[in-house]
């Protein structure tokens, strides 16, 4: 049959996608609840669930014990063996994770590097890691695709990395390189653009239709936008580059980089320096800064917080979001004095725009970019469980 939207086959595929999407986003659900949520009848839901079981995408489990009268409904859950591989290359490490369709992260590895990795090295690291995991945590896994969260400008149409300044990548066909090295389908996106999707679907922005997300990583500051419930990528996929804006700095004493952009002033490298660390993952840096009694650390956190507040106020004035989410080292800067940051933002933003906006730190922690990359990798499967299921 044709898969045109109005055909029986098209409707059937959409209904399969609806069921799979619900258990992916909401977790295990009874068939009775799926019937309510989809508006489909019970026999249709039962048939769709059985087909998804046959496709190896969900599991049907015995119902949980209940005191209710009547026959309890079986529970449908995403199959934990269906996984996407998520990758975040950075200047100090390449982090690789397996993210299951049910949301678990069965494998995660941060591979620290003493040099900036090339695209070719990145592809080989991914391939080598998957070969090692094949006899370990992914022995029973079915890998759907690979998602790459790259700190740079990624062209939406084909995943070409136009420019990742801190990695030194320019016009890099990373999708082709990784596909050749692994034999798997690959999706590429900007790290912060994928991070906002993760936080919107599963984290601090769940249920919020208008939000701004700023991500602070080793390569600087990126951002992502969700407006009216939909991610906004811009004409080429380059929207959200807050880190490249010129910062507003009220006090000349706060400036460190003459003519620099926001990420030159609000900087993970500067925090590492005052903490006395050369390299650190996010939890280690956050714990070191929080446990420090050094006046130098407190002063640097305060300086970065003041400059960040101005950047956030500008974003609020332009976009009028309900929520601003901060991830990575920006969450650490915020948590050093949340009330001071909120007060500084409200003092600089238009009162009408700032009066209802909320500031939160990313709820998914250091996995937010990986979960976002995995969500991109699951995209084809979730859109069409029949056509996007892979081999």
TrEMBL record:
InterPro entries: ATPase_NBD (IPR043129), ROK (IPR000600), WH-like_DNA-bd_sf (IPR036388), WH_DNA-bd_sf (IPR036390)
Gene3D superfamilies in the record: 3.30.420.40, Winged helix-like DNA-binding domain superfamily/Winged helix DNA-binding domain (1.10.10.10)
Pfam families: ROK
SUPFAM superfamilies: Actin-like ATPase domain, Winged helix' DNA-binding domain
Domain of life the protein comes from: Bacteria
Family (UniProt): Belongs to the ROK (NagC/XylR) family.
Name of the protein in question: Transcriptional regulator
Organism field: Agromyces aureus
The organism's taxonomic lineage, starting at the top: Bacteria, Bacillati, Actinomycetota, Actinomycetes, Micrococcales
């Amino acid at each position: 049959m044709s898969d045109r939207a109005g055909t029986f086959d098209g409707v059937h595929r959409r209904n399969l996608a609806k069921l799979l999407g619900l258990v992916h986003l909401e977790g295990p659900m009874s068939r009775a609840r799926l019937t309510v949520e989809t508006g489909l009848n019970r026999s249709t839901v039962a048939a769709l669930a059985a087909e998804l079981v046959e496709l190896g995408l969900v599991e049907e489990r015995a119902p949980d014990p209940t005191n209710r009268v009547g026959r309890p409904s079986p529970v449908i859950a995403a199959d934990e063996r269906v996984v996407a591989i998520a990758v975040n290359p950075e200047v100090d490490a390449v982090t690789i994770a397996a993210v299951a369709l049910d949301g678990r992260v069965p494998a995660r590895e941060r591979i620290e590097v003493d040099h900036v990795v090339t695209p070719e090295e990145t592809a080989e690291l991914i391939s080598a890691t998957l070969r090692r995991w094949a006899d370990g945590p992914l022995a029973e896994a079915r890998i759907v695709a690979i998602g790459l969260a790259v700190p740079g400008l990624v062209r939406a149409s084909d995943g070409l990395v136009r420019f990742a300044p801190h990695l030194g990548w320019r016009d890099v066909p990373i999708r082709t390189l990784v596909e050749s090295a692994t034999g798997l389908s690959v999706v590429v996106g900007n790290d912060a653009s994928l991070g906002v999707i993760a936080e919107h679907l599963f984290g601090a922005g769940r249920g919020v239709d208008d939000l701004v997300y700023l991500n602070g990583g080793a390569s600087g500051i990126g951002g992502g936008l969700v407006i009216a419930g939909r991610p906004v990528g811009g004409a080429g996929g380059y929207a959200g580059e807050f880190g490249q804006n010129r910062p507003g700095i009220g006090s000349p004493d706060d400036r460190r980089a003459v003519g620099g952009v926001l990420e030159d002033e609000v900087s993970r490298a500067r925090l590492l320096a005052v903490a006395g660390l050369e390299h650190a993952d996010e939890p280690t840096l956050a714990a070191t800064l929080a446990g420090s009694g050094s006046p130098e650390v407190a002063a640097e956190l305060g300086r970065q917080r003041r400059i960040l507040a101005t950047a956030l106020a500008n974003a609020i004035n332009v976009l009028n979001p309900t929520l601003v989410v901060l991830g990575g080292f920006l969450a650490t800067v915020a948590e050093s004095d949340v009330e001071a940051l909120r007060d500084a933002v409200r003092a600089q933003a238009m009162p009408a725009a700032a009066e209802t906006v909320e500031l939160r730190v990313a709820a998914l922690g250091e996995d937010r970019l990986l979960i976002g990359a995995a969500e991109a990798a699951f995209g084809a499967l979730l859109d069409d469980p029949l056509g996007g299921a892979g081999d």
